[in-house]
């Protein structure tokens, strides 16, 4: 059995480690937020005038390929058409959000569109469009399981918005086994 002084030192060390981890988490979140804000000013915005720009479409297109794997058509042309329709619905989905949320999503997309931001948040070296499916899925899984709340929040926002926009279309409901709304008599 360890002496009581040793237990006190262990508890103090645990508290200090948690405090340091919290400080690093807050500092990291602040740095990423500043980089994202700066990216939005320096880089072509990913969301402008109520529409995704090319860089925003690239991010959401890649996220959709990874998140919707197994739900998207297998045929290349049909998949490209489904992704294009999804990106149009994403414009409508984002437009329906409050302006403050649109600004947050725009900052996240601007951050993810820049190579340093993409590397810091998603851990991807290559452009979104050029990244194969397995590395995309791995990057998103890493974000989901990250210790940094900012990376987790980014993952959940991207995934939830992707599901909302993709499955908003009637043609995708059958994939889920959902026949559609039941008429009320």
Task: Describe this entry's structure for a reader.
- This protein has one domain (17-167).
- It has 8 helices and 2 strands.
- The chain has helices at 4-42, 54-67, 76-95, 99-113, 115-122, 133-144, 149-166, 173-176; strands at 47-48, 51-52.
- It has a two-stranded antiparallel ribbon with strand order 1-2.
- The radius of gyration is 20 Å and the shape is globular.
- The model has no long low-confidence stretch (mean pLDDT 84).
Sum up the structure in keywords.
single chain, 185 residues, mainly alpha, 8 helices, 2 strands, globular
Briefly, what is this?
With 185 residues, the chain is mainly alpha-helical. It contains eight helices and two strands. It has one domain (17-167).
Ordered list of secondary-structure elements with their pairings:
Elements: H1 4-42, E1 47-48, E2 51-52, H2 54-67, H3 76-95, H4 99-113, H5 115-122, H6 133-144, H7 149-166, H8 173-176
Antiparallel strand pairs: 1-2
Helix pairs in contact: 1-4, 2-3, 2-4, 2-6, 2-7, 3-7, 4-5, 6-7
Helix content: over 70%
Integer average pLDDT: 84
Count of separate DSSP helical elements:
8
Count of domains: 1
């Amino acid at each position: 059995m360890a002496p009581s002084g040793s237990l006190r030192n262990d508890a103090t060390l645990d508290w200090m480690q948690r405090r340091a981890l919290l400080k690093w988490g807050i500092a990291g979140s602040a740095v990423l937020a500043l980089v994202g804000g700066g990216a939005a000013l320096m880089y072509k915005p990913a969301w402008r005038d109520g529409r995704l720009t090319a860089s925003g479409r690239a991010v959401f297109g890649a996220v959709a390929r990874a998140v919707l794997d197994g739900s998207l058509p297998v045929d290349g042309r049909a998949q490209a058409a489904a992704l294009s329709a999804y990106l149009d619905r994403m414009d409508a989905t984002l437009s329906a959000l409050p302006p403050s949320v649109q600004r947050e999503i725009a900052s996240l997309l601007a951050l993810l569109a820049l190579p340093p931001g993409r590397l810091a948040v998603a851990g991807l070296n290559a452009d979104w469009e050029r990244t194969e499916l397995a590395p995309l899925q791995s990057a998103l899984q890493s974000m989901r399981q990250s210790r940094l709340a900012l990376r987790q929040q980014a993952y959940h926002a991207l995934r939830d918005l992707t599901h909302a926009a993709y499955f908003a279309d009637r043609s995708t409901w059958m994939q889920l086994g959902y026949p559609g709304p039941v008429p009320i008599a």
